[in-house]
Amino acid sequence: MTPITGMDLTGFTEREAGVWTDGWGTVLSVHFFPLVPDLPAPLDAPGALRAGLAHGVAGAGGGLIEALDGEVDGVPAVRQLIKVPRPNGHGQVFLGSWTVPRAACSTVLKVQAAEGPTTGVREATVMARVGPADYFRPHPYAPGVTGGLPYHVADDASWDAHFPGHPLTLVRAALDRITPTVTLDERFKALPPFAGPAAPGGGGPR
């Protein structure tokens, strides 16, 4: 059970409680964590929050594509897009999520999609267009971050229209469509807001 009481699931089929898939292989899931959220900083400190998330995701072997503050059903939240290596070492998995934190718990809406047998087409195409010198960039949230997957321009949303079936495009599109339709339990919305981490650290992908 989660505090998410409703959302538009058009195109998705329930596979098990709290998990749905669509015809593209995109997986949608909802989660509830009865713990102080593991975000590295409060939402009203976006610089520290984004830098902490970038370091946390890199430390876990992935790469933070973007972290944006916003709201889910009127409650402050943070949206993350991350990429991680596929467990078999071939290609990447892209995950998008909204974390809606409260003082002592959180709910998470997560969408993920993986590359298929053919990988790297988006990256190679974009690199050929922009040139190697302009392809890789320092991470905008944490320029000194090391480890994990590199930050590069092929993950930018401006390229999604060129690659409509790419898993990153699918994840972004699903989040953009579903988020405005999410409703939360009023009791969850009334809980005290998240004021910051209980202890130093945190921030990686769930």
- Quickly name the level 1 CATH class: Alpha Beta
CATH topology: Protein Transport Mog1p, Chain A
- Report strand order across the widest sheet: 2-3-4-8-7-6-5
Poorly predicted ranges (pLDDT <50, ≥5 residues)? 201-206
Q: Ends: how far apart?
A: 18 Å
Largest sheet: 7 strands, antiparallel
Structural commentary:
The chain is globular. The chain is built from 5 helices and 9 strands; from the N terminus they run ββββαββββαααβα. The two termini are 18 Å apart. The protein has helices at 46-59, 121-130, 132-135, 167-178, 186-189; strands at 4-6, 13-16, 19-21, 27-33, 63-72, 75-85, 92-101, 106-114, 183-184. It is of the alpha+beta class. The strands form 2 sheets. A 7-stranded antiparallel beta sheet has the order 2-3-4-8-7-6-5. The chain has one domain (4-188): Protein Transport Mog1p, Chain A (3-Layer(aba) Sandwich).
Brief summary:
By secondary structure, this protein is of the alpha+beta class. It contains 5 helices and 9 strands.
Can you tag this structure with a few keywords?
single chain, 206 residues, alpha+beta, 5 helices, 9 strands, disordered C terminus
List the topology elements.
Layout: E1 4-6, E2 13-16, E3 19-21, E4 27-33, H1 46-59, E5 63-72, E6 75-85, E7 92-101, E8 106-114, H2 121-130, H3 132-135, H4 167-178, E9 183-184, H5 186-189
Antiparallel strand pairs: 1-9, 2-3, 3-4, 4-8, 5-6, 6-7, 7-8
